Amino acid sequence: MIALFSAGLAPAIALLSFFYLTDKFELEPLHAILRAFLYGALLVFPIMFIQFAFLEEGFAETPFIKSYLLYGFLEEFFKWFIFMFGVYTYTKFDTVYDGIVYAVAISLGFASVENILYLIAHGIEVAFTRAIFPVSSHALFGVIMGYYLGKSKFNKKKRLYFLVVALFLPIVLHGTYDFILEAIPKGYAYALVPFMIGLWGYGLIKTKNANQLYHKQIEAKL
């Protein structure tokens, strides 16, 4: 059981450490990161209950509805919601990159509990595949959400626009990820691998842009 929990948590810890340490200017307090991580972890159970209820009622019978509404919308909306009410007004959230760190922490808290539950049900043998695909995808959805939430906080003129993008874009990407799995269950790897490569590329561009934005803010103050 210890090995199973370790395998379930390890990819999330590694990914969170990577994005945390990629902050080139000021690292966030660890207690705040842990709190955001726990927020995400606690989201799993109410979301799973809602998803189970909808599936039992036959609401999500098509791959499109199941992927984009039941998984993409529901999971990303609650992550966005908990960020807005648990992190957005936090005084230490003072750069665009901070948005990425906190959103990734929330996403990986969710992904960790989900991953552990999956490993309990299916065995530790699938731990590597889970780390490469679902856990890392949750982290990258968090990067994208956090980037635009950060943009919204520091751009009053386009605040509403960036808030909407911070929710809409992760929903679409998350839904597409699950739609690939639902629509082509046997040959999903041929579509999912290119999708993940593109997602990683886009996520890393956003982390770079966020660090550059802070550098420009510092220069403007000098």
Automatic annotation (TrEMBL):
KW Protease (keyword) present: yes
Family, similarity comment: Belongs to the protease PrsW family.
Transmembrane regions listed in the UniProt entry: 6-22, 34-55, 67-88, 100-121, 127-148, 160-181, 187-205
Name the UniProt record assigns to this protein: Protease PrsW
Protein's UniProt keywords contain Cell membrane: yes
GO cellular component, one term: plasma membrane
Location (main, coarse): membrane
Source organism of this protein record: Saliterribacillus persicus
Function recorded in the entry: Involved in the degradation of specific anti-sigma factors.
